[in-house]
Amino acid sequence: MNKIENDLFLRACKRLPVDRTPVWIMRQAGRYLPEYRAIRQKYDFLTLCKTPDLAAEVTIQPVDIIGVDAAIIFSDILVIPEAMGMALSIEDGTGPVFAKPIRDESDAASLKDIDPGTDLKFVMDALSVTKKELNNRVPVIGFSGSPWTLLTYMVEGRGSKNFSQVKSLIFRNPKLAHKLLEKLAKAVAGYLSAQLESGANAVQIFDTWGGILSPEDYREFSLEYIKMIIASMKKNDEPVIVFSKGVHQSFSELASSGADVIGLDWTVDIGTVKRQIGNDVALQGNMDPTVLYADKAKIKKEVKRILQSYANAANDNRDSAGSGNSGGHIFNLGHGILPDIEPENARAFVEFVKEESIKQHSAIAV
Ligand code: CP3
Fold this sequence. Notes:
alpha/beta, binds coproporphyrinogen III, TIM Barrel, 9 strands
């Protein structure tokens, strides 16, 4: 494979030396960008996902406009249940809706086993086009939802406040829940392997709803399946990032899940987590996405605080990764960027991470 010009992101994932902290933004291709909205005026969301040239175009937009160090392929986590046969629509104001949610054995029996190379070929094609058009400027991240997070949408049928349906399922019929989770884990492992095969340089598993479970239930219904996926993926040395939102008590277990990188939301201090789990994995995160509503001075202050917190912990941990004390950190927000953020603030955020981390790395190196 051709050498990637800016490989800071991949190096940080593998805890190799870097001369500054790389940065990208979850949900970086999306509605906060006028350039994205201009394309969305002409095509609906799923058409965008399924037209490789368009998906590639919006994937690359934040690299050019915001200056991030990695691209993430434009798609959605819900393309897997759709490929399994569930009719999906993305409705303005409501978000994703499955017309017929999965509630019992007969619903579950209607779900097809998928072959990602054919059923999700449009994602593989989007990756190939993106790789070609990016011309190795930055790495491309592939992704999937975790089995648990996919199951929540499949059972609830749409976003939810209390997750009553999916929680009823796991507590009243755990056998069926496990059967579905296993089916999803197999599909996700195949899907992520196929994305790597099609040119993705790393993959991220989004477990957005891991944190609605107690630590014990998280282990049983989410983490076990994430581990299964990582263990069974066909891959070379490509990094796997796991972002399980809100699972504060489970970081040590996550660190031994086989993931190279653990994504953190903003409700934990990154330095505290680093001290707790040690130096075996890299950390990604973790600025509160709503800090991007603030003025630039506040954004900069918050970026510096997070960089410093990580560096202090790395120093205390005697972490030998990277140059200085900041190796093994990928800067990101603690969840996706919100649609009403000013692109100018996203750009300033990325710039601050670059400037401030260079200062920090060189200050420590001398
Ligand atoms: O990060 C990126 O830029 C790549 C693209 C991406 C999308 N969705 C595009 C999208 C990624 C990585 C996702 C992941 C995703 N999708 C998650 C996990 C991450 C997270 O944010 O928690 C989840 C839970 C979904 C499911 C989903 N898809 C929701 C809840 C929604 C509606 C909410 C919203 O943001 O509108 C979607 C639709 C969606 N996925 C949009 C985009 C850009 C908006 C659709 C539009 O253009 O109208």
